[in-house]
Amino acid sequence: MFKYFIIIYLMVVLPFTINAEENVGQDMIRNDSINMEQVIRIADIEVYPEYLSDFLKAAKEIAATSIREEAGVVCLFPCQEKGDSTRFRIVEIYASQAAYQHHIQTSHFLLYKQKTLKMVRTLKLNDVTPLNVEDMTILFKRVKGIK
Q: In what order do the strands lie in the sheet with 39-47?
């Protein structure tokens, strides 16, 4: 389990450290590899403080439901910034562009968007490309093997 958190740390926390001046579980990994057809995104979200607890609940719900119900959702991992509790990063990995398009049309995603629209101060979707696909494949296989 520790290795899983190291992977997520490198994907989520490290960019916060690098961009500090800018204002901007096991069951979450479905595939054992990354391929270039996958959609990989890191969503930067800032919420209004008065909606913090509501957003936390909504973020947990959308992640759990998407992982449970959508085979094309490889990873949906919301994280809260330690230094600013109103800032979040969500690591999103979809099996393909079609899987992403399906995800954003599901009833649970549309409900999430409707509920959180007034809560979100800023939203930036950052599509990313892994620098070393082979290493990501190895990491995902390790995570899959952890019980």
A: 73-80, 87-94, 39-47, 120-127
Q: Torsions phi, psi of 76, nearest 5?
A: -140, 100
- Number of domains within the chain: 1
Residues 6 or more apart whose Cβ sits within 8 Å of residue 64 = none
For the chain, count helices (H), then strands (E). 5, 4
Q: How far apart are CA 35 and CA 95, in angstroms?
A: 8
**DSSP states along 64-81:** HHHHHH-TTEEEEEEEE-
pLDDT tens for 107-145 read 999 999 999 999 999 999 999 988 877 777 777 777 777
32-82 pLDDT tens trace: 445 568 899 999 999 999 999 999 999 999 999 999 999 999 999 999 999
- Output the domain CATH number for residue 6: 3.30.70.100
First to last CA, the chain: 7
Closest CA relative to residue 87, chosen from 19, 3, 135, 7: 19
Residues of the domain holding 99: 2-145
Amino acid at 66: S
